[in-house]
Fold Lipoprotein.
Amino acid sequence: MKHLRIFLAAPLFVLGCGGTAAEPPPPPDPRPTSACAEPLDLTFGTAESRTNITGLSVAVDDACNILLAGTTQGPIDFGGGLVGTTDAPFAFVAKLDARGKHLWSRALPLGATFEGKDVLAVDGKGSILLAGSLRADVDLGGGPLGGEYVRANHPFLLWLDADGNHVESRRLPGNLPDDVDYSGGFARVVEGVAYDAEGNFVITGRFVGDLDLGGVTLTSVPQAWDPAFINYKPDVFVARYDTKGDLSWAKSYGGDSLESPAGLDVTPGGDTVLVYTQLSIPEAAGEPQGLYVKKFSPNGDIVWSKLFAESILAGFGGSVATTDDGGVVFGGEGELVFNGIGTYSPAFVGRIDSNGEPVLGASVTGDAAAMVAAVAPDDNGGIRAVGWFENTLLLHGKTMAGSNGGLDGFDVHLEWDDAADTVTTFGAAADDLALAMARSEDGARVIVGVEGPLVHLDESLSPYSQGTRIFLRRHK
């Protein structure tokens, strides 16, 4: 998204020998243009680091500085000395300049984590918004946030200025399972955050129980399989806030089954686009099953809502990005059904126009595994996507690359003409997973992920898996 800057200066006239007026020199461009697109290939951490593969997020500001956030265990050095602890997993945020030089980095107190897929955003002034989850009463810089945490967590929002100083922090409170005599847990996670051009912002995620988003409390729909037993399950929420951080509107979506958000973004015109999956049994309350893409006006009215029936996002969820003309690209693990165009799985990418009509889709396949973790539009109607695969990578069923062992990362460029599709892969014998991507205004892309060997906390490749070193790459 482009941000306009206007420089005002008093007229300055310098008379030369001929008495003609000389134009004042133009103001300096704060963005080091030559460095914005220079390739970068950086790693952070050691073989003993344990970085969660969820919550790792990246953003680029108007000066091409790079912001990085995530959750890891074991002190980590981003170039300014070690931050963090060996005691338990901790959340971190770091800022690098356009050439990858460390500007500042810090660890958040234990008890605060990043669990979503895209929990970092930066506005046109360089101010930073982070969204995470609290599992204890912590002080993020503005005093203890309070709250009780018995089998429950609460989301938090944290604002930092461009130098990393605390501006504001708040907890989004919710109830406890004991409040409704429920034996399970209440999980609440922010999955995505985004700023618009004016500095308003939107958030999305999933929640169980009650969630107070700032004056509006939403309640998830219980799943009732038996009149004598109620099982609470996640619903999707989306909320928009103004430039002062006050809630403008909030909505939730859910029926008697499971809902999961892929994420959200904001169009150049200020509309919010939300993508989520609705799972339900035929007689369940709520919307029909399928993949939903909804566009909201700035005041929260539905511009349009599209259902791609028989489609589903699973596993790690997905990624969403808007296009300059108001369209949307999205991708993830699961199955996407574009009627009249095609069906795409086990990982997919899709592009729809500003009216929500399908224009491009593709299957991303590996011999044993494939995952689309982040997407972005290109300027000619195509799609950029990053993720990982095992053994062989195929697009539209066509073999494009082989792995170097284990899981390898990929960066694909999908065009209207399948023959023009291109793929770059990276990885050695150990695992490499590309997890997040951000674009600078000149079109350069910053990709972050983790290197292996992976640690699988539940003996499978799940959102709870951890990698070792963090990698950061930038290229056109």
Summary: Confidence is low (pLDDT under 50) at residues 1-29. The two ends are 17 Å apart (CA to CA). DSSP finds one helix and 38 strands in the chain.
